[in-house]
Amino acid sequence: MNFVLSENYSHYRNDILNILKNFKNEGVLILNDNKKRNTIKFFHINDLSFNFKSFKQHNIINRHVYKHYRKSKARRSYEYANLLLSKNFYTPQPIAFIENHDFIGVTSSYYVSEQLEDSFTLKTVFDDENFTDRNDIIRSYTLLIHQLHENGIEFIDNAPGNFLIKKIDDSYQIFLVDLNRMNFHEEIDIQKRLKNFSRISENLEIQKIIASEYALLSGNSYDFCEKTIAEASNKRIRKLKIKKVLKFYKYFLKN
Questions:
Q1: Of 14, 56, 106, 171, which is most buried by a Cβ count within 10 Å?
Q2: What are phi and psi of 163, to 5 degrees?
Q3: Among the four given CATH numbers 2.40.50.320, 1.10.510.10, 1.10.8.60, 3.30.1130.10, the one describing domain 120-240
Q4: What Pfam families does its record include (predicted)?
Q5: For the chain, which residues make up each domain, given as ranges?
């Protein structure tokens, strides 16, 4: 086992190990993604709530790769969370990552962070046209992505479910989650920046708000930003449709 624990939480080591022993049968389930086979639960330890993300079991090749050649998703999540915090971005406090191995490679891995209470997702804001301060929140989200880009950080999983929002006094703090996929650059050109929004929403109104704000922040024209974001989103939609058709024919031919 490879168990890396933040010094600030070192006194919770035994508690975390005990949770791992009973992970399947205990805890409060947040997500059980059958497609990705990731499971997210939270557990109470004293007065704190700990969020555990269990990553899917990999095939035999990836198990070997994640042990010897590439950092596991759990380790990347932990390290990227600390990196974000060091650059003054918000993410739930990273606590630990755990990797279990056998002679072939990684058998299971977990990322542990503080459970963020009293929060809602950006998806909730997108889905409700009457959400309080909706436009301001979308513009705040766009500012966050621009700041990431200015720091050379490309958040690959830039989807509305991966941003938790917490209202503190009269302002909204936006926390990034699902951190294991990021790219880092010396500088990000404007095309790549705008294409980073391809997953965020198919809603044209939301795309226009994002394009308007990003144009102001980056010094580019609104028309250019809006067109580039829309084209990236449409290209992604076409790829998904083609993928579904190919899956259908593959299933049809097998049967």
A1: 106
A2: -130, 120
A3: 1.10.510.10
A4: Kdo
A5: 2-114, 120-240
Show the tokens assigned to 98: 């755990």
Q: Is 42 strand, coil or helix? A: strand
pLDDT tens string 75-101:
999 999 999 999 999 999 999 999 887
What is the model's pTM? 0.89
Amino acid at 104: I
Question: What's the CA gap between 217 and 142, in Å, rounded?
Answer: 9
Taking only the tens place, the pLDDT of each residue in 156-205 is 999 999 999 999 888 999 999 999 999 999 999 999 999 999 999 999 99
Buried b (16+ CB within 10 A) or exposed e, 199-216: bbbeeeebbebbbbbbbe
